[in-house]
Amino acid sequence: MEGGVPKADVSAFRECLSLSWKNPYVLRLAFSAGIGGFLFGYDTGVISGALLYIRDDFKVVDRKTWLQEAIVSTALAGAIIGAAVGGWINDRFGRKKAIILADTLFFIGSVVMAAAINPAILIVGRVFVGLGVGMASMASPLYISEASPTRVRGALVSLNGFLITGGQFLSYVINLAFTSAPGTWRWMLGVAAVPALTQIMLMVLLPESPRWLFRKGKEEEAKEILRKIYPPQDVEHEINALKESVEMEVNEASDSDKVNMMKLLKTRTVRRGLYAGVGLQIFQQFVGINTVMYYSPTIVQLAGFASNKVALLLSLVTAGLNAFGSILSIYFIDKTGRKKLLLFSLSGVVVSLVVLTVVFHETTTHSPLVSTIETSHFNNTCPDYSTALNHGEWNCMKCLKASPECGFCASRANKLLPGACLISNDNTEYQCHKEERLWYTRGCPSQYGWLALIGLALYIIFFSPGMGTVPWVVNSEIYPLRYRGICGGIASTANWVSNLIVAQSFLSLTQAIGTSSTFMIFIFITIAAIIFVIIFVPETKGLPIEEVENMLERRSLNFKFWQNSSDSSEVPKQKHQSV
């Protein structure tokens, strides 16, 4: 497509592994900066489990869906601000200082959340955490990308993706570990202060990004770092390429401090980079991944598994699959390329969402009936059921949707047989469990529960290696050096705004149109994402960062995405339509 691109294959993955003994300095930079990704992942994972216990401690949260969404979404609002301001901070003060500031905000937020005495203070802590996560979400991959050798850049930025999913996995482990501890959710949220403090100490000892230093005129300091990153035979070529790139930018724009949105959009290479980068970040959220991660315990209960602990345990499995998918990405991203990996990932997501849509439709339409005899066995019938005239038409799902204050106590003999529709409170739950029955408030007993889990697992296995990591990789390498921080900030902001919209609306959507219809919406969005990737996303596999700008300058549309770039470059330019 772009011509003259050196082929990167499985040897790039082996080269990445060999860094552990050939050049551990590069791995130390990548891992230390990648802790920012770990914090990002931990926060998205931990809140889903903590929310189950926050609802138990603060009854007002349990009764009001909007308050549950607010606890999740205020962190996302903070992340939007953090990502937007973080772009400017990255360009003005450097990647290193941006990461340290992000850690400090995350540390403060974790302490405030752990000590919260009411939902309002908890929400304040979530805002601080969001500011830190938003800033780190673009600073960490940017730092790794600029401090990585070209051949393994994709794998090392994918390492940041692995640490995101690793953070999610660890959050579920910690959620399970503290299920029986006093102050359950406080421990879950407060533990996050430890990795934030760890990264602050590590980053203080690490250098600034060599490319940022070059841009700021600190050439000798940058050269010293580059000599530690690249082998002796490559370092001079890299220094010369970086020097030429910076000189070209300075010559092109003497008013470099007056960057604005119109200037960005008028610059062809930046505009084309933003099409791809921002679009990928938006679609990453709108195909539903963080809905799955934030609310996976709730989704598991919707699938018919009643226990909080069982929901957390099954969510741990999904988080483990997510981490495994990130490992696959490290292996394949420099072998198959970014674009093919995205298309494979999105195609699998469509199949998985179809499975989830069908399963949740069956779960909703075939929930157990409500028995008048079973209900009268208890002394606290749901008021809506008591006043209803058509008891014979009531089932578990209708009971739960009638009011947030109603719950379903399954039959003792078989959870799929008619059960009782009761008032939802601690006393009722105790009575139900005392008779060895299962108590449901978020979903209903179902014979299709395991199929829902298989659908979730397939979704994550397909999503993680491609759409989970590639958008961050592409955004860390696709923009010209001069605009890299601000453009990365714009793309991250788009990601968090999309994240906020999806998280804020998911539970409300499931209540309004049902879980199956909500997943069906994600299917159509994912199909749109496939079309977008084919048309707008270029292949950056094997390209030195300094050459990406040249590629964007001459890039044209190419629908034959399966062809190698060297093949595609032979197609006459007049057969392509300019982007």
From TrEMBL:
Subcellular localization, as worded in the UniProt entry: Membrane
Please tell me whether the keyword Transmembrane is annotated for this protein: yes
Its domain of life reads Eukaryota
Principal location class: membrane
Q: Which InterPro entries match?
A: MFS_dom (IPR020846), MFS_sugar_transport-like (IPR005828), MFS_trans_sf (IPR036259), Myo-inositol_Transporter (IPR050814), Sugar/inositol_transpt (IPR003663), Sugar_transporter_CS (IPR005829)
One GO term of the cellular component aspect?
A: plasma membrane
Cite the Gene3D superfamilies for this sequence: MFS general substrate transporter like domains
Membrane-topology descriptor: Multi-pass membrane protein
Q: What is this protein called?
A: Major facilitator superfamily (MFS) profile domain-containing protein
The organism named in the record is Psophocarpus tetragonolobus
